[in-house]
């Protein structure tokens, strides 16, 4: 049960300053630790050390199912990068561990650092349904980011999905390091699966920082680019596609051809849920990023592919507000189209996009919209049913403001039940 009051009672909070997380450990100490899923039984663990020497900062992870009792180890590699701003990164380490058991807590240590507070733990996702996915976009590193992360930390979830705009470093490379330290408590404990936004494209340096720091399992899904890929969750019951709004996507492009191949390989009897994430929304009634070419061009190039594959839901970021649409295809309500959700409200430094266009052509398709910081949780209950809840960030606790129950489009002609919960 949720308390309902009028939406205009909610007073939006003022902007908050950046939260800069300092490095106060020895040069060989692992920092910015985050994990990502690689196939069904492996995890990639990434971290950074200021020390670039392999002798004192090796790319090794020790792990086991008991605290401090590391019965297995794996070796990986490290890389560095330089930017036009004369910034040189620390050593960025990557190690893949496994095979791992599902729904199991593993304790691990990076780089053979003996300090007890370097010991960490992660929990592997379930091998079947139900599964809970946290979705959060345009995160940044402000006071609101920190508050939103605290709300997520209190939740019991399996994996976090982020549709672009991570650190908002914007060529100030030390902000990538600060961001990595800020999110480490969460990103080291559950898989973070991300795709790029416009703020990852750092002018003449392109995506060099993003690609080196946040390597995703694109090779495993047949993608030639770290900017788009796919993966399975819940033992293959859920297939997630992370599309690249800032990689070429027109028909004839590598990404377009990859998307067709990937969708063609999905067996909906085995995989009842198809989820897509991208950065620039295809549907948007906010004044921010209105009529922006990248979103509309990508929609024109790829929407039919998603529709014909019966994709269930599409998440986007970019617009710093929350908006949920009905099922849509080609600018019209369509019961066999995806539900489109914009969730670019994680806590970025640019503030909220507070103005929606009341007479926008897509306004009749928009079922709930609000300019507030927050995050969402998609709980896929079973092969036919899921529930999406958007949690408004009101500082002290996460308030459920919007809820919708979804039926998989692998299930013939089942209506969507929806409920909006206003505070």
TrEMBL record:
Pfam hit, one: Metallophos
EC number assigned by the record: 3.1.3.2
SUPFAM superfamilies: Metallo-dependent phosphatases (SSF56300), Purple acid phosphatase, N-terminal domain (SSF49363)
Record-annotated Purple acid phosphatase C-terminal domain positions: 337-403
Species per Swiss-Prot/TrEMBL record: Hordeum vulgare subsp. vulgare
Source superkingdom: Eukaryota
Domain called Purple acid phosphatase N-terminal: residue spans: 30-115
GO-annotated molecular function: acid phosphatase activity; metal ion binding
Segments forming domain Calcineurin-like phosphoesterase: 133-322
Enzymatic reactions: a phosphate monoester + H2O = an alcohol + phosphate
Family the UniProt entry places it in: Belongs to the metallophosphoesterase superfamily. Purple acid phosphatase family.
Keyword set, alphabetical order: Glycoprotein, Hydrolase, Signal
Protein name: Purple acid phosphatase
Record bears the keyword Transmembrane: no
InterPro entries associated with the record: Calcineurin-like_PHP, Metallo-depent_PP-like, MPP_PAP, PAPs-like, PAPs_C, PAPs_N, Purple_acid_Pase-like_N
